[in-house]
Design a protein that fits this description.
transmembrane; 2 strands; mainly alpha; membrane; two-stranded antiparallel ribbon; transmembrane transporter activity; Nucleobase-ascorbate transporter 8; 527 residues; single chain; NCS2
Length: 527
């Protein structure tokens, strides 16, 4: 047809680095914009920081005061650990916060019969917290040694695009229970937040062109501010006056108890709950959670590198990050929190939403964490955002984080039946196995593994309820063993492409993104 543009029927080109990123790891927005973006990262990480203590602290015997103190402590250690990881760890723009994978072992410890003798709830809280501290501090040795001694480098060196894709995909998709189900606890504010976030970040920028990308870059702040104000209006107007207690807790802006429980100024400090206790069974239980968290964080590192427009992490950088992640878990235990450390999935998703992968922005967010951890009342006001609003954010941010897993498939042969089997089977099992374990507990009150040892049964429950861990391990083992010697396997798995990222020195761009500051790479070289 005359004048018509004929479509070019060729595949999209393969990209080592993600195009379209406004600011990569080493480039920075203006200080004013960076501060606003950093505050947005802080706002996003508050969700997990509030949800974890809200679940665990009541089981320990704590009230609103203890919950507020634990949240302040979590904020403080998250700020410290984020700075350490971005300076000396992987050097990626990742927030290091609490992990949902520690909720189960923490609840197991909190409900242990050994604390039934304490009649005073405050004393019961302190004793159970001390046990969690001791278990976390000793369990942190596992990732610390695995990372700094190079064991994790050996493991991740055998990763390839095919085995990494299911891991990255299910790090975010595996948290589906924290998305729309959380939003659905108060649909009248959760759903408007979801719709408004999508409109501001995706539709309006294509309909209304501005000199500065205000809507897509600050969509979270704008949407949360509008819907939070709407929720406050409904609260003041008495819309929830005669509603059930659970609805009031989810929808009202004055039911979290954080503002009343928080101190005006409080400095979290090491061993604030007393000298940690050590129980061998609890240590092994926390080690299981630490291992799962390490696997999931590896997927988070891979996704963050993609959204920061860096090259994929060499194995030695992933190992260095694992070592610092272990030290972060030790810091969590030392300061007194019920959870270890992991890469914040929602903040990786925010990198994609804003197209800003700047390391400096995440470091600014860490300063906000430290600031609001000390000024308790002010931090508690922000932390009292209704959780259905947070659930709406998760629907978008968890999905965006997981989408980085699809990027890896561009290096694989999707016309290979071997590729299809490994992908399909590992992802399906990553969803199905945790569903079986969780469903078994709901119907019978205990896990499916009944060995006679309660500790072993709980360890199996912790490991096999992580979709990312199940899918990642299955894909890794299948890729290592299935048709390994077939002449086409190397290219079908994308291993021929991954070869240049197995070792730090094989790609000259590694120095640009992952070298240590202050000339430390000279004394601590990566291999």
């Amino acid at each position: 047809m005359t004048g018509a543009v004929k479509d070019e029927l060729v595949p999209h080109p393969v990209k080592d680095q993600l195009p379209g990123v406004d600011y990569c790891i080493n480039s920075n927005p203006s200080w004013a914009e960076g501060v606003i973006l950093g505050f947005q990262h802080y706002l996003v990480m508050l969700g997990t920081t509030v949800i974890i203590p809200t679940i665990i602290v009541p089981q320990m015997g704590g009230g609103n005061v203890e919950k507020a103190q634990v949240i302040q402590t979590l904020l403080f250690v998250a700020g410290v650990n984020t700075l350490l990881q971005s300076w000396f760890g992987t050097r990626l723009p990742v927030v290091i916060g609490g992990s949902f994978r520690f909720i189960m072992p923490a609840v197991f410890i909190a409900l242990s019969n050994q604390y039934n003798t304490y009649l005073d709830p405050r004393e019961r809280f302190k004793q159970s917290m001390r046990s969690m501290q001791g278990a976390l501090m000793i369990a942190s040795v596992l990732p610390t040694l695995a990372g700094f001694l190079g064991f994790w480098r050996i493991v991740t060196r055998f990763l390839c695009p095919l085995s990494k894709a299911p891991l990255v995909l299910l790090v975010g998709f595996g948290l589906y229970e924290q998305g729309f189900p959380l939003l659905g606890e108060c649909v009248e504010i959760g759903l408007p937040e979801l719709v408004l976030l999508i409109l501001l970040s995706q539709f309006i920028p294509h309909m209304w062109t501005l000199k500065q990308p205000i809507f897509e870059r600050f969509a979270v702040l704008l949407s949360v501010g509008i819907v939070w104000a709407f929720a406050a209006f409904l609260t003041v107007a008495g819309a929830y006056k005669n509603r059930p207690p659970q609805t009031q807790f989810s929808c009202r802006v004055d039911r979290s108890g954080l503002v009343s429980g928080a101190s005006w100024i409080r400095f979290p400090y090491p061993l604030q709950w007393g000298i940690p206790n050590v129980d061998v069974g609890q240590v092994f239980l926390m080690m299981a959670a630490v291992l799962v968290s390490l696997i999931e964080s590896t997927g988070g590192f891979i996704a963050a590198a993609r959204y920061g427009s860096a090259t994929y992490c060499p194995a030695s950088i992933l190992s260095r990050g694992a070592g610092w992640l272990g030290l972060s878990t030790f810091v969590n235990g030392l300061w007194g929190t019920p959870t270890g450390s992991t890469v914040s999935v929602e903040n990786v998703g925010l990198l994609a939403l804003t197209r800003v992968g700047s390391r400096r922005v995440v470091q600014i967010s860490a300063v906000f964490m430290l600031f609001f951890s000390v000024l308790g009342k002010f931090g508690a006001i922000l932390a009292s955002i209704p959780l259905p609003i947070i659930g709406a954010l998760y629907c978008v941010l968890f999905g965006l984080m997981s989408a980085a897993g699809f990027d890896l498939l561009q290096f694989c042969n999707l016309n290979s039946y071997r590729t299809k089997f490994i992908l399909g089977f590992s992802i399906y099992m990553g969803l199905s196995v945790p569903q079986y374990f969780n469903g078994y507990v709901i119907t019978t009150g205990r896990g499916p593994v009944q060995s006679g040892s309660a500790t072993f049964d709980q360890i199996m429950q912790v490991i096999f309820t992580s979709p990312a861990a199940v899918a990642g391990v299955i894909a890794y083992l299948l890729d290592m063993t299935l048709a390994r010697r077939h002449p086409l396997t190397r290219k079908d798995s994308g291993r021929h492409w991954w070869a240049k990222f197995k070792y730090y020195s094989r790609d000259p761009r590694s120095e640009e993104f992952y070298s240590l500051p202050y000339g430390l790479s000279k004394y601590f070289p990566s291999v």
